[in-house]
Amino acid sequence: MNQISDSPHISSDAASFVVVANRLPIDVRIDDEGDVHWEESPGGLVSALAPVLHGREAVWIGWSGVATEVDAIPAFRTPAMMGSYHLVDVPLSASMVEQYYEGFSNSTLWPLYHDRIVAPEYHRDTWNAYVEVNLHFAEHTADVAAPNATVWVHDYQLQLVPSMLRALRPDLLIGFYLHIPFPPAELFLQLPWRQRIVEGMLGADLIGFQTPFGANNFCEVTSQLMGYESDSASADGGWIDVGTPSFNMANSVQFRPARNHVARRVQVDAFPISIDVASLEELAASPKVQQRALDIRRDLGDPKFLLLGVDRMDYTKGIEVRLRAFVELLEDDMLDPAHTVLLQIATPSREQVQEYQRLREDIELLVGRAAGALGEIGQVPLRYMYSGLPRAELAAFYVAADVMLVTPLRDGMNLVAKEYVATRIDDSGGLVLSEFAGAALELPQAWLVNPYSLESVKEAIMTALGTTPEDRRRRMAAMRTHLREHDVERWAREFLDALAATGS
Ligand code: ADP
Ligand code: G6P
User: Fold this and answer.
1) CB of 112 within 8 A of CB of 190?
2) What CATH number did the domain enclosing 118 receive?
3) Which ligand is nearest to the CA of 100?
4) Mutate to test the pocket of ligand 2, among 26, 40, 45 (most ligand atoms within 8 A of CB)
5) For atom 4 of ligand 2, which residue has the closest CA?
6) How many structural domains compose the chain?
7) Rounded CA gap, 98 and 473, in Å?
8) Atom in ligand 2 nearest the alpha carbon of residue 41
9) Residue 5 is assigned to a structural domain of this protein
């Protein structure tokens, strides 16, 4: 992980462009001596947003990743400057972290929005903490934003912020972007606080989703809950007319007039997120990364085929299915353990949440068993690392891998798939990609799989390894062309242009 050791720099200027996310782009780490260090935060939201803000004048409001009681660590409490933009830390106490972050955000919303892969928990206490922390974020934002500023609120942890902020500061232009899937109505409507969440999001002028399915699901839910008229597929962009219910008893679950909303139009659309393609290409082409890729292959015993998985350690990512598929292919003698390696790199994530602890135990058990059962002495076809890596190191692993396995059971987008493609500067390599990742809509030339079917994953691995170099090149070239035209800068521009247009 990169260490960012510049001393924090204080600014009291009001900002005309404010990004609000649960996470700051840097995470606080405290070493054994009690010294404070900053590291890059994990996950796709930060990977995408950090390059977008580079060079822009902005303020990023978020949490440092560590629970802080008031004044416990003074360095946390100050805004810090990163390049052109400022960071404002929102301190969260240990109980807020437990209830709002580990609880409502990651034990209720995260599993509910990802198809209930594990059962969501519904607790009034964690909901109350979610409301409290969202208000905390909204108040910080209201203090920092200049008159008529543009505020861009991010992700499922902060869905109440748009309406809270609108109530505090009606002058602001507010955009909200959901990085994870918005689930179909039959799932979302389980949430005891469903109407409050929808009202919270509707405080924005523009709501962005990863895919048209998310936008459509959201419109469906607002129609069922509030009876609002909407069109998610309008040629000029989707919309919802808030405060003017076309109430229809037949399709309304429960109608209560929305509070705090006068009649106004909220724009709703899909904006598929992306990556900084040019900088990854440059990194992949650098002699240092190219050499490191060769060294990695050598260290792994120079296999004929190197397969790779890279994920946060998360049950949505389908890590288990790809490991099982690989083990079965070895057991079935479809792959030769003397010439094939699968390396799984998993970044630690949400380690205090029980389901994440359980997942890690399951994966490590599987890896341990496979090590004992497969291959001759000295051969270890399944390798596993539990750590975050610096960007250049990660790029070298992408460059080294012949086939990338991206098999989430559900994923808003999946930037790892896009990152792998961007680093294949000679158009080599194959991507096995889940149909249930948002990225599948943009990368149909990947070998698409149903991750719930072990056979489907096994078949795709064999096809990706067995196809001709020309076929692999043709597919990779098409995916690279698409990505170059749809990088993260374009994503941000399209969202912010659409947001600006709502104010005109
Ligand atoms: P999510 O947002 O759910 O974490 P994504 O695939 O969209 O999933 O984004 C994950 C981001 O985290 C990518 O930018 C990827 O490079 C990064 N990442 C994943 N694993 C590691 C790792 N072991 N070391 C460093 N970065 C990682
Ligand atoms: C996903 C979410 C982000 C989150 C990231 C890392 O990308 O959409 O909001 O920041 O995972 O998770 P964490 O809980 O460590 O912030």
Assistant:
1) yes
2) 3.40.50.2000
3) 2
4) 45
5) 43
6) 2
7) 47
8) 15
9) no
Q: How far apart are CA 289 and CA 284, in angstroms?
A: 6
- Please tell me the predicted confidence (pLDDT) of residue 3: 35
pTM passes above 0.85 = yes
18 lines ligand 1 (CB under 6 A): no
Is the CB of residue 419 below 6 angstroms from any atom belonging to ligand 1?
yes
Same-domain status, 306 and 439: yes
SS3 sequence of 48-65: HHHHHHCCCCEEEEEECC
345 lines ligand 1 (CB under 6 A): yes
Give per-10-residue mean pLDDT for the chain (504 aa). 34 80 89 79 92 90 84 52 84 95 98 98 98 96 96 98 97 98 98 98 98 97 95 90 66 48 86 97 98 98 97 98 97 95 97 98 95 77 96 98 98 98 98 98 98 98 98 98 98 97 86
State in Å: Cα 22 to ligand 2 middle. 8
Contacts of 266 (CB under 8 A, 6+ apart): 202, 204, 205, 206, 207, 239, 240, 242
Rounded to the nearest whole angstrom, what is the distance from the C-alpha of residue 273 to the centroid of ligand 2? 14
Same domain, residue pair 383 and 399: yes
Write the residue with the smallest CA distance to atom 11 of ligand 2.
Answer: 43
> Hey, what amino acid is at 25?
P
237: left (phi over 0), alpha (psi -120 to 50) or beta: left
* Ligand 1 center from residue 413 Cα (angstroms): 11
Q: What pLDDT is attached to residue 28?
A: 83
Are residues 221 and 324 located together in one domain of the fold?
no
Please report whether residue 402 resides in a domain. yes
Ramachandran angles phi, psi of 66, nearest 5°: -130, 140
Token pair belonging to 209: 């989703």
